[in-house]
Amino acid sequence: MKKSIGAVILSMAFLGGCSKQDDKLVLGIWTTTPQEMAFVQERVDSYEQSTGTEVQIEVINGTYNDAIQLQIASGGGPDVFYMDSLYLDRFVNDGAVQDIKPFLKKTDLNDFNEPLLAAYQKDDAVYGLPKDANSLVLYYDQDTFNKYNMKVPANWDELLKTAHFFADLDKYDAGIVLETEFPRFSPFLFQSGGKVFDEKGNFAFNSAEVASAYDFYYRQLLGSKAAKTGQELDGNETAFTTKRVPMMISGGWAVQTLEQESKDLNWKMAKLPAGKEQTSMLFTVAYVMNANTEKTQESVDFIEYMASEKIQRMVVDSKIAVPTRKAAGEYYQETNKDFVANSEQFAYSNVNLYGVDGAKIHSALGRAGEKIYINNTDVEQALEEALLELQ
Amino acid sequence: MNVSAWVKLKFGMPFYIFFGLFFIIPLFLSVYLSFTEYSLTQGGLANASWIGLDNYIRAFGDERFLSAVKNTFIIVIFAVPIQLAASLALALIIESSALKLKKVFNVGYYLPTIASTVAVALMFTFLFKSGGAVNSAVAFIPDNFNWLESTRFAIVPVILMHSWSHLGLYMIIFVGGLKSIPAELYEAADMDGANKLTQLLKITIPSLKPVIFFVFITSMINGFKLYDEVAVMTKNEGGPLDSTLTTVLYIYNTAFKSYEVGYASAMAMIFMSLILTVVFIERKVKHAKS
After folding, report:
1. Chain A interface includes B39 (CB < 8 A)
2. ipTM for this prediction
């Protein structure tokens, strides 16, 4: 009997130990393309060669954030892992990530783009070093614009008129392809002069400004033939690369796909058309340190290396994203002249960050847009319902 | 305890250990968590704070939860009869003496059960999208109608996908049931001049009653548990506007996206009680009839 129980316990201990080798530093990541994975592997290899520290990469695709939560709850998890800015406040609030500032040896924090680093700073603590970032930009088909002698829209009025112009040609499925989800709409919210929170931290999105943004995006654009959703057109990038629409709003991350899949499309990138204010949305991911790790200094050393200027220059060459360091940013401006719209927006854009309940806010504000677009709900009513849901 | 009982216990031990570890303990933990405020990012369960019945009170006033429960019942009400009828029909065809290449059909019909959920969900997304095969095949549906963007009709592809993906499993169970019916019964019926429909109604279906009940319960529970197909089809949202939000999907999103494991546990407890009640009533009805 004792032997049987002992065997079961030993087996479980063995199974539990299989996921992590104790002598290695574990990096938890997600990847979207094989090229990105190869890029991470290359950087990790260079770290291993230069320091002798072995690093195990744990790739979690699909349900990354959920898997990380489960690992943390069980007292484990990767020593260092990717953290989207949207979820950081929750992890900090619950003590799941550690302040890395006391362990930093080489990093000059002043070299980081301020809003991006600020997203990972709480009071005097630093919870992560942003590895790269992207803003939402307008992609357009240069040849089509030239053919019809159209200029790239610079504001809401021009965007609406241009989208209608192309839609009315009956040659395209729509003038522009958009998404209904909140992150894609969010820059318009801020462009309207509206806010999600007021200065006291109370919800302030049920305002006339925000209502005007919802009306413009979900009713005037998506509610007319000027725009269609990615779902209607087999996906944003597919619709754009197959010339079913001459304009698309997406992040800088689309560059790699467009370069690979649109050989016969002369596409260009422009800043987002402005509303009352010129702004876009910044999406960033940082390396953070697990509060459960026992390899504190090794983890921070690794984070410093992975967010170093040398590595960020490699980010620039890969065209995956814009570097978060100012020095590497200058290199980006010199070498990626066609994509500077992405990086130039960093100076005035908002970071995708809404406090401890960021994911809930995303969901409620996204549903408000869907109510307007699908159910034709009154804008003010949709916003009021979102407010009730969040309170 | 006599020797025989001790030996039985020893042989049953692996099951008891795993059942306890992976079912009984999590169940009790879930009951405990349902009375707390807790998120996984807080770490161990010691960090959960006791809030009494608040989660339960909140759940009964949560429109999204009630809407998810309603959607789940709609799916079960439509999918269970479809699955029962279609899988029984397939089993009868497979067992028909006239059918050749039985094994090929057996494997063919079973394939959806083992197919990847992602592949099945993508297939149905393509079938029901604007300009998809379903719109092309059915004359009165406009070609540009997008089922998955309609709050009223988005649940239709979900019901059909769920029904289709489990057909093979239930068919195999029915085939097993059909094989256990003595051939003499049919021979006697033939001699008495009973036609095939009479044989089906008077011999096959009465003989299959226990199997039908088993498939009915299994299919219903699978319907209540529906999560993965909807998650893939609607990018984890249950949209548009919660029209395909199932209870398990909402519970999952509450635990992992809203970081409210305590509240999610309370909803899971309520839903489990609901399922147990339905199963209990069905068993009572079955016993009363028999």
Report:
1. yes
2. 0.86
